[in-house]
Structures are given as structure tokens and as C-alpha cells.
Amino acid sequence: MDLVVVLVCVSSLLLLSLWKQSHGKGKLPPGPTPLPIIGNSLQINFKNISKSLSDFSETYGPVFTIYFGMKPRVVLHGYEAVKEALLDQGEDFSGRGHFPVAERTNKNGGIVFSNGKTWKNIRRFSLMTLRNFGMGKRSIEERVQQEARTLVEELRKTNDMMKEKHNKQTEFTTETLVATVNDLFGAGTETTSTTLRYGLLLLLKHPEVRDKVQKEIHQVIGSHRVPCMQDRGNMPYTDAVVHEIQRYINLLPSNMLHSVTRDVNFRNYLIPKGTTILISLTSVLHNEKEFPNPKTFDPGHFLDKSGNFKKSDYFMAFSAGKRSCLGEGVARMELFLFLTSILQKFTLKPLVDPKDIDVTAVKNGLISVPPPYQLCFIPV
Questions:
Q1: Considering the entire predicted model, what is its pTM?
Q2: Domains of the chain
């Protein structure tokens, strides 16, 4: 008898859980029916979440709800829905989604995982500080050029923080500032280095692209002068290659989680304040209408018929809106200067036939990283 009572109680709790998921506050978009406790976990391929989201979107459209456990996540799939949320209603969708591990580590500080007043003040402060250090100015370009020269040499070797002191309500505590510096260095160095490593692998796979870039480098810059950002305007093919590397590798397929900062009316749905928003950047960067054959590495995606560089609103490698990458300007500079500096001095040589090179991303749950590979840097 006791066992029957326990089973009835457990069943009731499971049914109550399912009812709450389906009839909670707000009018969430439709989606696959979640199971009690585990939600839609059995219907999602966690090794390729982007593919699962794409499959769901074919049934439920560009805005739908899935459950990771008992918590709903509203998914935005495709350029139009992503643009509408991040740009047209950017303030409403500017919250950061829930990351328990990061929140415990950073104690809700820093810039990547913070929210509300803390995030706004720290972001404003970080932008001001980065600009004081020279972000967007010629002075920081010279430092990046020096780093590029140092990188080339290493490859060759192979062969206002006092104004707030007495404010007890300030966000500018030592812990918050340490977390912010960690965020800036972590996001700024890991993403750029991974993109560069992936880019070199793609050039090994596509030697015809590498040759065209080197030809343009030697036509515009020559063999001795240090590359600079002014050169980019005269190097449409190289600029297209850098953009195509970022588009193709799709570094952050599902972006960082967002959340809505208030109850939001979005496409006839009512999304309650605090709801987690999952944004498929894959659906934008690999959009078939904007980028024909999106699974193919082709710099022509960013070139017009005359060979001039062609911008695209679908290029959201740095996300978009209020939570877009704080260091986008520096990252763009680094990628261009590092890549041109390397290819100015070296030819990349694979250790295997290019057709045997595997460029399939190794997904680790958050970012797409290149598979391990070896190469030789042959001095030009």
C-alpha cells in the first residue's frame, strides 16, 4: 500500500511539473512536447545542437520553445528573428542567460555573465578603458603589429577605479574588476587564437585561396613593409577570406545565452521576464539564400562580380546588438594583421595531401575548434 501511495505522489508531481511547463506565466512559442523533469533532452543531439535546432525550426518555425530539464528556452532561428530580437528589440533581449558555474566563479561580476546595472556600468567602463588604451586608434594597431612581428619571429624559431573607493554600492569592486579582466582576456585571446588556427587549417586545405592571398599581399604590401590596417581597403580578396573564415567556422554556433529583461511581446508571443533565449548563429552565418553552398569554404561569399569586397548584414560572427563582442574592433584588426604578417613571410605546407585534410569542427559544447593538425612554415 505504501508503495502505491509513493507511486501516485511521484506521478502527480511529474504531471504537475509538465503542466507548469506548458501553462506557466506568459504565452511561450510552440515547440516539441517536453517530458517531465528531463524536458526535451532526449530529442536533442548535444554533439550537434545546431542540427537539432534546425530540425525543430522546420516543424515549429523560426521562434520556438524547448526545455533543457524543467526550464524553457526560447530559440531564435534564422536572420529575421535574430535581427528582430538583437537589433530591433535589443534592450529587451540584452539580458544574459543563466550560467551557474560561471556565476559562482565570477560571483555575478565581470562583463560576460553579469546583468542589469552591473553589466551596463562595467561594459561602459570597459569600453572607455579600452579606448583610453588605444582601441580603434593607430597606437593599438602598432602594438598589434609588434605582436604580429613577434609571432613571425617565434614561428621562424621553430625551424578611474579611485573615484569609486568609498562607494559601498559600486560595481567596481576588486572581485568584479578581476572577473572583468579575466572575461576580456579569456574572450579576446581564446576566440582570436582559435579563429587564426582554424583559418590556417582552411588555407592548408585550399592552397588556391592561400596563393591568391599571398599574391595580393605582395602586390599591395610587398615583402618588407609591415602590414597595416590601411592596406585592408586595397585587399578585397584577403578581407573576404578573413570574413569567410569566421563565417565558415561558426565559432559560437548557439551564441552566449541571452534572457529577456522584462515581459516581452515578440511575434504574438508573450515571453516572461527572465526567460532564457537561445540564438542560433548557425542559422544566420550558414543561411543558404545569403551564402550559396554555406557548408563550402568560399571567399566569393563576400565578393561582388567585380571582385570588390561585399558586406553582408548576415555576418554576425561577433553576435549583434547590446551584447555583441566588446572587442570586435581589436579582433578584426588582429585577425587581418596576424594572417597577412604570416603569409607575407611564410608559405604554409601541409604534411599530408590537401584533399586528405579534415576541417570538420570539434564541438565542445560551446565553441567550434579545429581538429589537431601539423604544418610547416616555409620562409618565402
A1: 0.81
A2: 78-379 (1.10.630.10)
